Here is the input.
Amino acid sequence: MGNNYNLMSKATLDNTIIKSAKEIKSNLYGYKLILHGNEAIFSKLSFSVLTNDPLGNYLENIYYDSKNPSKDRLFDIILSSKSSDHFENYLNEIFGRGYFPSLIYQTRDAIEFGNNNILSHLTEIPKILSKERYIFGYSFEKVNKSGYDNILGYNQELNSLFIGKNYPLTSSISSGWLLNYTRLSDKFKNDYEKREDNLFQGTGYLNYNKNNFNGLGALFLGYSKGDLDRNIQFDYSQYNDTLTSVKTVDFNESLDSKIKTFYVGGMGKISKIFNWNSFYVEPIGKFQSMGVFQKSIDEHNGTYNLNLDKLNGFLNTFYLGGDLGKKFDIKNYGVKLSLVGYLKQDLNNIDKNMKFKVQSLGNETGSIDINNKNRFSQEIGINVKVGELQTGLSIYTNYLYEFSKDNSWRIGAGINYIF
Here is the structure.
C-alpha cells in the first residue's frame, strides 16, 4: 500500500487492483480490512479478541499514544504478527507465559522427590524399629518433563541428601526426625530459561510396623531459595513511518531474578506385604499435601522486566498402587527387584493468576493465567536395590514412566546407610 496508507487508516485502491484481485486482505494478524468500492479501511482488532488470555485485557488497557519508546516498541513487535501462533509466541516470550506458571510445580516436584525418598527408606526397613539408629541417605534423579497446557516442558536434575535419627517407642512403633537438603536444576526445552534452587527441609515422623503392615505419618517444614535466568529471543518485522519498507529486527535480552519459597505440609503411607517364598506383593496407598508460598519476583537487566506478585498454592497428591517383586538372599546381603505401578491424582488449589507490572510500560497491573489445577496420571517403573536390605548399607536405582496428557519419565539412583 505504501504512501497511500494515511493517518485515517484508509487507502484508495487503483481500479486495476480492484478488477484483477480475487481477494484483498491484511497480512497482519492484528488488523482487519474492510472494502468500500475503491476504498480500503484498516481496523485494529481488540487485543481481548486476538487472545482469550488475561493478557489481552492488559494490552488493551495500555494501548494509547504515551510517547513512551518502550511501549511503542512492544506494540510494534506484537502487531507485526502474521498469524495467531506468531502473536501468541510474542506473548509467551515477553511475558513468560509457561515459564513463570511452572515454578510452583517444579518446587512441588522437588519436595515430592525428597519426601518419596524418606518414605521408601523408613518403611522398607522394619528392623530400624528395634533400637535407636541414625539414618543417612543420598539420592540423584534426572527428569524429562513434558509440557502441558500453559506449562513449558523442562529437563530437571535433583540431588538430595538427608540425615536423621530413629527412636523406638514400643516394639512396633518408632518416631524420629530428618533434615534434608535438595539441589534443583531445571533447563527448559526452549533452551532460553533455566532455574537453580536449594531446598532445606525438616521432617518429623511416626512409624508403625507389625506383621508386615506398615503405616507412616510425617509433618515437614521447608524453605527454598534460588536463581532464575530468562532469555527473551525472537525477531519481528519493523515498518518505517510511511510503511514503504520493512526490515527484520532481532530482539535478545537476558533477565535474571531471585526466587524464595516457604512450604509446610504432611505425608503418609500405608502398605501390607504378602510373601510367597521369595516373591512378594505390596499394595500401597500414600499421599502428600503441602502449602507452597512463593514470594514476589523482580527481574533485572532488560527492557521489559516483570515484577511478579507472590503466589500461593495448596497442592495435594494421592497415590494408589503397589510393588510386585522378588528377593534374593546372599549371606548378609540381598538383592530386591520389583515392578511398581501407581494411579496418581493431583487435587490442587492455586491462585488463578500471577499478577505483574512492567515498570517500563507504566503502573498498570496485568496477570498471567495459571489455570493448571487437577491432573490424573498413571506411573509404572522398576526398582533394583542391593545391599543389607534391613540394616546397614544399600544402594538402589529406579526408572519410572508417567502416562498422562503428555508423557514424562524419570531415572534415579541413591545410597542409604542405617547405623
